[in-house]
Every structure is written in structure tokens, then in C-alpha cells.
Amino acid sequence: MDPLSFNQPFLSGNELKYVAEAIANRDLSGNGRFTKASQVHLQNLTACLNVLLTPSCTAALEMTALLLELEHGDEVIMSSFNFVSAANAFALRGAKVVFVDVRPDTMNLDEELVEAAISNKTKAILATHYAGVACNLGKLKKLAEQYGLVLIEDAAHCIDAYYSGQHLGTIGDLGAISFHSTKNIHCGEGGALLINNDEFVERAALIQEKGTDRKQFIDGKVSKYSWQGLGSSFLLGELNAAFLLAQLECVQFVTEKKRQIFRRYQARLGEVKPIEVAKIPTACKSNGHIFYLKCKDRKERAELITFLKSNAISALFHYIPLHSSTGGKMFSRFAGRDRFTTSESERLLRLPSFVGLKSVDEVCAVIERFYS
Ligand SMILES: *Cc1c(COP(=O)(O)O)cnc(C)c1O
What we know:
By secondary structure, the protein is α/β, with parallel strands linked by helices. Helix content is 37%, strand content 15%. The longest helix has 19 residues, at 251-269. Pyridoxal-5'-phosphate binds at residues 56-58, 83, 85-86, 128, 154, 156-157, 178, 180, 191.
């Protein structure tokens, strides 16, 4: 049997055509025609008017950290069951990362624990929406308003995913999306920054253009451009933007396929004891980005991974909690108790999910056999 891979990056079929057009245009640096076209597509999909394409979601998160003008010792609250870039972006600015525990049902930060973690140094809350399922943004937005904090959404997983009908990444002040090849749609490496608070629009353009007012120069608003403040090289190249446009044109198709796979796994594996499958809160409309199950414990998970592997199926666990890592020890603290972050992450196992995956039922059958 051919081994079943965990992920196969989606291809729409138009990527090469658009990349060839970009080359023929001889317009290959950032903010060219394909960037504009992809931006319009994202604006229409998300209803966010200010979308910047970035080289990665990591870069978009670093832009949010620059926008916050953090000072040494300022604090940002997030969950520890998280991708390293969420913490790194702020640690790079000298900030302290403050972790709160996750909710076991979604693996997102527990909104009920955030208030106790707020100090007079807190500047922002970072809400990572794991697997395309939103954090409790209603509650987080209220807290951010009450304490004068910036709410940032790490919506890396969240293209075409929603909370109360609004696209994820558009509800906080700032949102970051990933187009890495492991995500639902992609351009190899790429990302987007969604700016929902007008206060940040102008400075985001400076930060993206190496700290210069080059955008204003291109728009004919100033006669020359020069260094205005901190920034870096945060533009996505046109070749990637061309590839991305071909993907964006198929985003609803991809979402539907991923949701179908999710529902099929959920229906079959939800019946298998002692497995737990995710329950999606009613306000959330997920994009099926990740299907995971939870085994009894770490040991059982290791055995299941081995069993799946011996049946030519690859399944992966996910983040090692950041607070327990070497970098985490340097740049973070954990506020309150780690009741679920470590123990739940040790049970979590992701199953193959990609457009074109035919063998969901076979994967389920192998898992059922493991537990029978
Ligand atoms: C993938 C991912 C990122 C980083 O995305 P890149 O585009 O690879 O930089 C950030 N946060 C989360 C939650 C992710 O899963």
C-alpha cells in the first residue's frame, strides 16, 4: 500500500498560468498587479478593507508587534498551546509573553482566565484560533475594550472561517492569516495582515515598506520617500501573489472539501470509545482546517501513531506547549495553573486531511481496529 501522507498542498491548476503572466509583466517585486488582485479577493471574502499581503503569517505577526510600539517588559497574553511565531513576534520587541491555560474543548485560550492575567504592563491579547475554530471573541473584545488593550487574532488557520458570521481576523484590531503550504490554501510561503482599526492603517504601510513612506510616494502624495521609523521588508513578491490568486479563486471549493472530511471523521470516530473529537461552539463556523482526535493519554497516542504508521498512515501531534520550551523559559511566564495545556496537548493527534483525500473511511477503520 502507498503510504498516505498527512497533507498534500492544494493546486487549483491555474498557478502556472498566473505565474507566467507575472513573469511576462516583468513586474515581480511587491504590490504589483497580482498583489492587488489577491487583495481585492481577500477584501471581498473577509469584508476587511485593509489587507496587506506579507511574506508569511509570521511576518504579519511581527508587523502587529511593531504597530504596538512595545517597550521592554510590556506584556502580551496568549495561550501556550500555540505556534512559536505567536510568541516570538513579541519577544523580538522585548515584550514578555504571558500564557494562560486553554479550554479543553477547542484548545483555544480560555477567555475566563484572561482577566486575572492582565497587569499594568499588558498591552495586547493574542487570540490564536486553533484549527479554524474561533476563540470566544465576544468576551475577549469586551475585555480588550475595558482594559484598553489591543486584540490581535492569529488567524493563521482561518481562511474562510467565521465567528458570528464575521470572517476570522476581522474582529480584533489586527488579524494575521497564513498561506504556508500546510494551510488550506497557500502560495508556498505567504501571509496577510488584516487591519480593522483605522488607527493602524498608515503606520502599517510604513512598516511594510522598510520604515519608509514609499507607499505615499507611489500614490503621488509625497515627492520623495525617506526613512520615517521602524520597519522591515514585509511585502509578498508578485510570483507568490500570482500563485495565491489561483488558490483564492478556489477557496470555497477547498473549504467545502475540508469540511466534508472533517464531518466524516467526526461522525465515525465520535462513536469510538475512548476517543474524544472536537465539539465546535455554535458561534463558530470552521473551515475544517485540522481534524484531531484525543486519545486517553500520551502513551496511548504513541501506540496509535505506531499502529497507523504500520498501516501506512501518517498522523501527527501538534505544538509542544511554548512555556515548556527553551525559548519559552527565556521570554514567558505562565499565569495561573496549567490544568489543560500540557495534558490535553499530549493526547491530541491530527489525522490526514487534504483536498483529494479518498481514504477517510480506511483511516477510520484502522483506528476502530486499534480500539477494538
Ligand atoms: C502556520 C502558523 C503560523 C505561521 O505561519 P507562517 O505563514 O508559516 O509564518 C502562525 N500561527 C499559527 C497558529 C500557525 O499555525
